[in-house]
Write a structure and sequence with these properties.
There is one protein chain. The protein is an all-alpha fold. The protein has eight helices and no strands. It is elongated. Keywords: Membrane, Transmembrane, Transmembrane helix. It holds the Pfam family PAP2. This is Phosphatase PAP2 family protein.
């Protein structure tokens, strides 16, 4: 039975029980985090390769630069301003992912970046964009299970990434 969400340490222990009972699953989670955080910039680079090979004009490429970049800057400033502590700082939990930084938990910059990159891919190919969006959701889950973000951190980041990515539709 799921514990009360008012005690995040109990909820986190319940959530990670399938991992802590089998240590090899923790290693898989850690690898998934590394793979996904590496894959998203690679996917973003592939977007530019696609645009280059399609001989897209500079005017057509510009939104793929300024929409993610401006969102990332504004997002980072907001995150710095609110400076929410990470779960392992506030609760007695042992995160499954290695993270030494403090604060800046809300919203998740990794998930926002992955989502905005996925929105870029959606502009080029909806099926590939949806695959990329699934990767961003998987990253969100990994960040929660890893103990470096609360569910609200990744949910807010994902929604903000979708909203900011909607700027593509306005152009």
């Amino acid at each position: 039975m799921m514990p009360n969400l008012q005690d995040y340490s109990k909820f986190y222990r319940w959530l990670t029980l399938p991992f802590t009972r089998k240590p090899h699953r923790v290693q898989v989670l850690q690898r998934m985090n590394r793979i996904l955080t590496f894959a998203m910039p690679v996917i973003y680079s592939l977007v530019f390769c696609w645009l280059f090979f399609k001989k897209t004009s500079l005017g057509g490429i510009w939104p793929f630069i300024w929409i993610p970049a401006s969102g990332f800057v504004l997002f980072s400033l907001f995150r710095h301003w609110v400076n929410v502590p990470r779960p392992y700082e506030k609760w007695e939990i042992q995160p499954l992912l290695d993270k030494n930084s403090s604060g800046h938990s809300f919203p998740s910059r990794h998930v926002f970046s992955a989502t905005i990159i996925s929105m870029c891919v959606c502009q080029l190919s909806l099926p590939l964009g949806m695959c990329s969006m699934l990767l961003s959701l998987l990253l969100a889950l990994v960040r929660i299970l890893g103990g470096v973000h609360y569910p609200k951190d990744v949910f807010a980041a994902w929604v903000l990434g979708l909203i900011w990515g909607e700027l593509f539709l306005l152009l």
